[in-house]
Model the fold of this input.
Amino acid sequence: MSEIAETNQSFRNWLLSERPQSRMQARLGRFYMVWRRFTANRLAVLGLLIILALLFVAAFANLLAPYSPFNGDLATTRLLPPGGAHLLGTDDQGRDILSRLIYGSRLTLYVVLLVAIIAAPIGLLVGTVAGYAGGWTDAILMRITDIFLAFPKLILALAFVAALGPGIENAVIAIAITSWPPYARIARAETLTVRNSDYIAAVQLMGASPARIVIRHIMPLCLSSLIVRVTLDMAGIILTAAGLGFLGLGAQPPLPEWGAMIASGRRFILDQWWVAAMPGLAILIVSLGFNLLGDGLRDALDPRGSNQ
Amino acid sequence: MVAFDVPRSTVRLRATGLATTIGKFLVIVITTYLGLLAVTFFIGRVIPIDPVLAIVGDRAPASTIARARQELGLNEPLCWQFVIYVSKVLHGDFGTSVLTGNPVLTDIRRVFPATMELATLGTLIGSMIGVPLGVLAAVKRGTFIDQTVRVIGLFGYSVPIFWLGLMALLVFYARLGWTAGPGRIDVVYEYTFTPITGFYIIDAIIQRQWDALRDILSHIILPACLLGYFSLAYISRMTRSFMLNELEQEYVVAARAKGLSESRIIWRHALRNAAVPLVTVIALSYAGMLEGSVLTETVFSWPGLGQYITNSLQNADMNAVLGGTVVIGSVFIALNLISDLLYRTLDPRTRAR
Done:
């Protein structure tokens, strides 16, 4: 027993060493510090657990779902209340709501990840280029960013989807188009703080091209604040996507998208409340998870702004 | 007296400073607005519906189609079309709604007061509760109260507004019967109550129709509380952060050293300094409400701009959709800029020296 404790202790010392012997050790050490700060926040850990559970459910949806999400028995299982064989009840098509929620987690994850993958790099590129180049490039790029920032996001996404046609891909594009500007702002602010530092001057002296400096030496430094912001935004993305689904502009039936499920449950709200209530709870839990995780990440990665 | 002798150059500097501030402000207003119009113009161009066919029908002879194209200006170069579009919008011409047959602007004028009434009441509720909550959370930092306020806020950030609206309708209208259901006013009053301003609460008070007023209030209370809750989440969080910032300042220490009561320090000294950024936060949350109205109004069948836009969307009435988008976008931009301007003028510390 004491031996294990001793190795643990020495491992901890190795991680927290002030003179790391390798890059690997330094990185692990920093990660350990962030992890300690993160796990000290119980709500943040709860958020992480929710998101891990979401990932797990989405990955193994076909194993976890007790029934088919698309086919129900109209004769016997229509609008059954929660409990019994159908834990969360069934909808008007006789489909098991739990199974639909489980499959719907894939759609939610799909939307969130795709929006993040599209919007974050755009924002990162615009922000770092604007911050590094300065002058007119900066002025023009930031003016465009501010213009997009001044738009009402949901309304603009609505208009985009109206033009492109309803569907989950178009919803993703519409949300991505409206959500990159804050990332550009953050990336620019980070770029401005490192732009005049000595190590950038050193790379410039060695003859690195501006593109190389931006991509290799500036972008990595913007990543941590960008990741925090993206995580915090994910709840908003989920809510917007669900809102579009609710208005019939996102994923189309019979896809088990949570927002669209609420919309279809709306007709039975007075007598069969669970049809609309359950998907809403799922959305609430998942976006709460992203918010808690984002808050925790922000506090762990950036202790300065923790009281904000 | 030397101190009052301001050098000439400083005066001129101040004047030019003001001029550049106004100039910059105008550039921001104009470019932002042009950007908005460019986006709506672009959306109007990429829609798969051919505007010519929508007007003349698909059986029209080729000559009619050609004439319609000519009249719509679709043969002009794209940038010229954009200029025409901008000048039309600036004249308030958004085209005709296919759904109602009215000019879009007339429709919007009819539905806009409903949205305004709801958003105003929602902001009032949100700030009257949100600001004290935020102050309380900042003062009792780290305690149970702080955690509770934080959880209330987090819940507001995470819950889908349309779902919460549905659940509120289910509980308070259908099960408990405490409030009226969807809509603005009961059908009973449809012929006795005449809207004057379009703001029903004001109209009812002017006409002294107290029964109608009670009915109107009973209809508006649920959606207004819902919107209020969402702005409360945002406002209380920001208030807390501003107050924490103020309470760390030295003047608070000085006030304490003078022996002022804690409540006086909090409400008269710290909150006053936090008030300036708070005004901008409240303005922004008002703008956010106009946006949130799209979902709330759909749930509560509230005959406002949001419902108008979604109805038009479902009927592929693009003129109405884009017109509504431009109007909400304009109000949004205006509120953004006003809050920015307020920030600069209200707080002497941020004034250009």
User: Anything to note?
Assistant: The longest helix of chain A spans residues 97-133. The domain at 98-301 of chain A is CATH 1.10.3720.10 (MetI-like fold).
